[in-house]
Write a structure and sequence with these properties.
3 domains; 5-stranded antiparallel β-sheet; 10 helices; 43% helix
């Protein structure tokens, strides 16, 4: 057997959520699993042509560990390092913990690479899921408590309006105790009817808000085959019609992404809410004609969502060149009734998160001035 030809059983490394590689003691890469390939955003073919020393911002700890293993000074070594991502350096390096161990075969070295932030991210996702569940229960109970008296208020206002229009003598009794010149009955009826219209209008507005709070809980799931690019195109057309000038919407699709079972309308609403949130942040750039929005789809491999690991997942990015998420609300952006703009309902991202979670997925984001990126992850079959 060729010393550098790995047995077929090593293909099982592709099923691991941990980044794994096998290299010779001189650093030449012999194997890189799919998790590593996905994490560094470099093709496996390119990784196999290179040297593991080139993967790190500072290669010295890796070089010293390989030399110590080659001299049999140690059987394993551990160190922390920064792992490069993407050939052009378009992503921040990953802070990782590397374990290098001798293997029985020839001078091979097994590398296990764990992202230090991975556990922190999993804990954050679990907390976010628990908080989302608590928020949904709170909102649902609150909405039900508001809904019942709200219907009574609207009904009473309608009855009062009918009374004012059909029994003008009642106006005289209502106005009898008032001093000053008495308006005509018709004028008084018009004035009081306007007040009832205000009550009815505001009750309807609150009813619409309550309906939005209850919508995720009572809307039936229409499950079918979903093409994520049809979802993206629907959202793109809606936004392009709302902003025909000043906003450039770019598409960067991976057309190999398969269809999956889901609720198409819910996903359209989820993506639309995120995109509309972005356009609100881009108001100044739209007015200046420099706003840019990117819809990007990719396949992620060996993804952990919560405590569940999935072989494949859809990655949908919504990226904008706006000012970024305001610092005071960054930790609460998915909380209900939290908004970064005056007059906002603070429900758009909450509902988007709910719809995505109903597809066993999650939403996360990173934001700096000039670039905000929301990422939706949904498991694929």
């Amino acid at each position: 057997m060729n010393a550098d030809v790995l047995p077929q059983e090593y293909d099982a490394f592709d099923q691991l959520a941990t980044m794994v590689a096998i290299a010779r003691s001189d650093g030449h890469c012999l194997l890189a699993n799919s998790t590593l390939e996905n994490a560094v955003a470099v093709s496996r073919r390119a990784l196999l042509r290179g040297n593991v020393l080139d993967w790190f911002v500072d290669p010295l700890p890796m070089r010293e560990t390989l030399l110590a293993l080659q001299r049999n000074e140690v059987t394993s070594g551990r160190f922390e390092a920064q792992l490069k991502r993407a050939p052009l350096g378009s992503f921040e390096p990953l802070l990782v913990r590397v374990s290098a161990s001798q293997m029985d075969t020839q001078d091979w070295v097994l590398l296990e690479i764990v992202e230090i932030e991975q556990q922190t991210r999993q804990d954050r996702e679990e907390r976010a899921l628990g908080l989302a569940q608590a928020n949904k229960e709170l909102l649902r109970n609150l909405a039900h408590e508001i809904k019942n008296p709200l219907g009574g208020i609207r009904g009473a206002a309608q009855l009062l309006e009918m009374e004012l229009n059909t029994r003008p003598n009642a106006l005289a009794r209502l106005r009898g105790g008032m001093s000053g010149p008495k308006p005509t009955r018709a004028a008084a009826a018009r004035g009081l009817t306007e007040y009832t219209q205000v009550i009815i209008h505001e009750a309807d507005r609150l009813q619409a808000l309550v309906d939005r709070l209850l919508a995720p809980h009572r809307k039936p799931h229409v499950v079918g085959d979903v093409n994520i690019h049809e979802v993206c195109e629907r959202v793109r057309l809606l936004i392009s019609s709302e902003f025909p000038r000043g906003l450039e919407v770019q598409r960067d699709y991976d057309t190999s992404i398969p269809e999956f079972r889901g609720d198409r309308e819910q996903l359209i609403q989820a993506v639309l809410n995120i995109v509309r949130n972005a356009t609100e942040a881009l108001a100044e750039q739209i007015a200046a004609g420099s706003a840019r929005l990117v819809l990007r789809t990719r396949i992620a491999r060996q993804v952990t969502i919560g405590k569940q690991r999935y072989r494949l997942a859809l990655e949908l990015h919504v990226q904008d060149n706006g000012p970024g998420v305001p610092e005071p609300i960054r930790d609460r952006i998915f909380h209900p009734l939290v908004s970064g703009r005056e007059g906002g309902s603070g429900l758009g991202l909450t509902l988007a998160q709910t719809f995505v979670q109903q597809h066993r997925g999650t939403i996360e984001y990173d934001s700096v001035p000039g670039r905000t990126n929301f990422k939706i992850l949904i498991p694929l079959p």
